[in-house]
Amino acid sequence: TKIAEPVRVAPQELAPAMTEVTTTPAVEMERPIIEDQELLDIFLEEAQEVIGTIHSNLDICRANLQSHDALLTIRRGFHTFKGSGRMVGLNNLGEVAWNVERALNSWLQNKKPATGNLLNFIEVAVQSFAGWVEELGKLGGVRVEASALNHAAQQLENGLEPIFSSAEAVVHAPENITPTIEFEL
């Protein structure tokens, strides 16, 4: 039996296949709808804590691929981003978090151990959120461009495993994320 080679898909080729994914055009800067700077500061502080928690649990998963509790904590982090993002009116950010959360829900529901590909996907997601939070703190708004991340989340939710290279998983701001994503068929 011959093993099929992974299919490489460039991000610009993903758009037509994303009909089931909640995506948003990332052209405009999204600003929180809150007028209270103190509430925004609380959101930014909580976001930094969530990012730190996800990173810590990602390290646990890398050391022990069977760590179900660490994956649950990571999923809760994206759940928090979903709720708190929507609460302050950052709906695009909240929708991306919801897509990642659903993908992780599916993975956890199937009781699969973590894989390198899943952990790279989580790394890309958390680095994206870290970049968006940083942009929000500096500019008071954020451009959420996440079509490739949303598509990868949808693929995970559907039982396919996106493959990010290690270089693509080590990014530090969302504008640097232009991964080529592979899907095993």
Amino- and carboxy-terminal Cα gap? 15 Å
* Total beta-strand segments: 3
Q: Note the overall shape.
A: globular
Average residue-wise pLDDT: 78
Report Rg.
Answer: 16 Å
Helix content: 55-70%
Structural class: mainly alpha
Low-confidence stretches: 1-27, 169-185
H/E topology pattern: EHHHHHEHE
| Percent range for β-strand residues | under 5%
Total count of helical runs of at least 4 residues: 6
> Strand arrangement, largest sheet?
1-3-2
| Major β-sheet annotation | 3 strands, antiparallel
Short description:
The chain has 185 residues and is mostly helical. The chain contains six helices and three strands.
Show the helix and strand layout.
Blueprint: E1 7-9, H1 37-63, H2 68-87, H3 91-109, H4 116-139, H5 147-157, E2 162-163, H6 166-169, E3 181-183
Helix pairs in contact: 1-2, 1-4, 2-3, 3-5, 4-5
Describe the structure.
With 185 residues, the chain is mainly alpha-helical. It has six helices and three strands, in the order E-H-H-H-H-H-E-H-E. It has helices spanning 37-63, 68-87, 91-109, 116-139, 147-157, 166-169, and strands spanning 7-9, 162-163, 181-183. It has a three-stranded antiparallel sheet. Helix 1 (37-63) runs antiparallel to helix 2 (68-87). The longest helix is centred in the N-terminal third of the chain and has 27 residues, at 37-63. The chain starts with 6 loop residues before the first strand and ends with a strand.
